[in-house]
Write a structure and sequence with these properties.
Pathway: Cell wall biogenesis; peptidoglycan biosynthesis. This protein is of the alpha+beta class. It is 33% helix and 10% strand. Among the domains are: 215 residues, L,D-transpeptidase catalytic domain-like; 100 residues, no CATH class.
Length: 504
Amino acid sequence: MTAGVLLSGCDTDQVSLATNAKANQPVPPKLLAAMVEKDMDLQSPILVRLFKQEAELEVWKQARNGQFVLLKTYPICRWSGDLGPKVREGDRQAPEGFYSINPSQMNPQSAYYLSFNTGYPNAFDKALGRTGSQLMVHGDCSSRGCYAMTDEQIAEIYSLGRESFFGGQKAFQLQAYPFKMTPANMAKHRNNPNMAFWKMIKEGYDHFEVTRQEPKVDFCEKKYVFDAAKPADAKRDPVFDASAKCPAYVIPEDVASAVREKQGRDEAEYAKLVARGTPVARMNTGIDGGMNKIFAAKIPEGSTGLSEGAEGTTLQMLAMAKAPGTIPGHVNPPKPNLDAVAAAPAPQEEPVVAVSAPAAGTRVATAQPAEKSQGGGFFSNLGRKMGMGTADTTATTPPPQATASVTPATTSTTPPTAASRLKAAVTRFVPGHDKSKDAAKDAPKPALAAAKPAEPAKPDTRLAQTRPALKPSVGDGAADSGQMSGAAPVVSSNSFDSRFGAVK
């Protein structure tokens, strides 16, 4: 029976504010201190905002001046689906829009520690024929269309809602967005098919931003209406029906004026960003939802998915930070669609591309007189590799006068000597060596093939094997030490040191 309950939705246990040890945990002292600092009463009203892309849940609380002030931001451990509203039962989408949470929606006996029902579908969702049920904000960090927090986080959020109800708030508002409705985010997602819906709910976002008051929400003609009031000559308040024609209503001028000014600034900034060519966000490539970076950093192979990754830092650096709650072992982080990732160009594969023919011809030609000199040519080249010569010179590059006359038709066919092989090894082990030229060394050399018909040069495929297309290695530099076609095998550093000592 329990399994059936869990499969039917995020949570279907009986909901109430009944006496329950978990549901009656006190508000933590740190939050109480923050309320004192921000001039709030413990039982004043709250308002909640959710953002998928940022993977954050904000709790706002009314201060004594009547305006809502941000009390605390909670990182979301897991949300599922894509950016965009929930449309039908089973689509795994976490809802977006404006919802009302009353005491009956609070669940102290949730299978996911504690929870509250978002109230999806609201009248707007129903007018569009959207389906779904039991969409929750809950603990356990596991989501199938919900917003999942850690148990410790949901205990705090639950306690704040409970105290607001004890203080007389009949219901608190939940605002769920795909992202913070800034001009930058709107420009980034301008080609998304949900943009018309997002612009509509941005109106409510703007009302809250300019007033810091909970916006009054109504529905008519299958759309949202915010802060509607009766006209001056009306005898009664307008009656709204989500599927019917909108009644006569007005928006208070002080609110309407402030919203217009904000929207004008946002539209001007949006136009500038689009004109500058702000990149358009990639559409969902099969990734299921997102996770805040602080949680992704704590999980093996963790990923933020459709949420934003760490900016200015890495998940490895965040791994040392303290997690806001206990992360259960069954957490399933967002996973990418590997087929879509494989189809995208991989930057790490660029060094494998063969260099142009002139560079290859110049590189393999070695002036024999330099090799037969009394050691000056070898050690001068070695000196240049150690930082005493030009950075573009390699140990096998002939003198300028020899290079100028070398062409593919006149390339020396003399087999490489022991000295030239030693030079090739030196170029691979000298610190600061320009590894971008090593790809040229691995390309087949026609001149060498002609010089040794019994051992035709073969393309060295080991470089590609050491650089998987989908998983960049932290040891990428090692891939540049592949063996040059026609040269002696590259030896280990210890073996090379002993050989070099013998030369000295």
